[in-house]
Amino acid sequence: MDTRMWNGLVGVAKETCTAVLGEGVVPRPLMMPLVRGELVGLIWARPLKVGQDALAGIAELANIAAAAGADEVVLAWETHGVATACELPIAGAVPEHGGRHPRRARPAPVPYTEQLLSRSAEGCASVAPDWRRVPAPQPGGELVPPIQAAVNFSFTPIKLDHPDPFGVTVVLMEEDGYRISLTEAFAR
To answer: Which of 63, 93, 113, 142 is the most exposed place for a label (fewest CB within 10 A)?
Structure first.
């Protein structure tokens, strides 16, 4: 993946995160699979329940990538949100969006600080991220289990007895609540 494509995908993840945080909601994990350098689309995790459902729901993001035969994926997530949903220890004090370019096998954190915009009568905060400088990806960094599973399963071929395994995977995932926006080349 070239730098321009990487920066564009990170930009999409940041824009999505900014919009969702402004609504007072934690962003759901987002996967952006690529096939031979061409973006397949954007896949957001379905609504997740705390615990095993969150672990499975995040790992299942891989289904579209696997069905498309992706050779690269970028996966963006809000670190504290994933840790909370999956009942995992929260690593690091700074909220961040993470990205993963698995062929280079490096986590790429995109840290931010939160600026309070407003607080509802119920106490829900609406925040805006103040994006900090992105550090260089570090080789050999650890990923939390559901993110690692999504990366691993992205490159495990899906075998379905169906004339259009990609199309049926998209339909089934949408029925399960995943939000999917395919690029024109992959939309059917």
So the answer is: 93
23 to 16, 74, 116: CA distances (angstroms): 11, 24, 11
Q: What angle do CA 100, 44, 33 make, to 5 degrees?
A: 45
First to last CA, the chain: 25
Confidence of residue 130 (pLDDT cuts 50, 70, 90): confident
Helix axes 52-59, 145-154, angle to 10 degrees: 30
The structure tokens 């995977």 sit at: 169
Structure tokens at 138: 């570090």
Please classify residue 34 by burial: count the beta carbons closer than 10 Å to its beta carbon, then call 0-12 exposed, 13-18 middle and 19+ buried.
buried
Residues 65 and 129: their CA atoms lie apart, in Å, by 29
pTM: 0.83
The per-residue pLDDT for range 52-93, each reduced to its tens digit, is 999 999 999 999 999 999 988 888 888 888 888 999 887 654
The residue with tokens 């995790």 is 45
